[in-house]
Amino acid sequence: xxxxxxxxxxxxDMPMAHIAEEGLQCWFQSDWHRDPRPLAxxxxxxxxxxxxxLVVQHRWRGLVPPGGQVEPDETPxxxxxxxxxxxxxxxxxxxxxxxxxxxxxxxxxWSATLNLSYWAIADPATELVPEVGQPARxxxxxxxxxxxxKTDSRVIARFAEQQxxx
Length: 166
Known about the structure:
Layout: H1 4-13, E1 19-20, H2 24-34, E2 40-46, E3 52-58, E4 62-64, E5 67-69, H3 76-88, E6 100-104, E7 113-121, E8 136-140, H4 152-164
Parallel strand pairs: 1-6, 2-7
Antiparallel strand pairs: 2-5, 3-4, 3-8, 6-7
């Protein structure tokens, strides 16, 4: 179970996301609060030109942004940044607003939970130190790279395009 600080941080960050799944706030207030599940968070790390994103090769989910379960004693942002460092060796600061908020199930037999996607920029020459068995690499955001949640690559590409046009 999550402590009040983690849930409060999720409630604060969710409506601030640049992009949110339709009906997410209602789902969170009804389904998630009735049956709280672990929070999940990831980090979309882009090159400065927003043309590439850092991904890890998950053993059964394919190419995904670094992330995972938020631990009981951390905020979603803190959990996302911890997972980024554990999975890639990259240590950076995430932007103030999350990029994306969605209800996600990470296995077909698991219920959906709240996932907050934070974002940051890193030099593509940054040395990557991935976890054993989970290689990390940069992919072009405008290609349809294989990922577990089929629409995520398109959402990430749309977000990158919005940032390029700023």
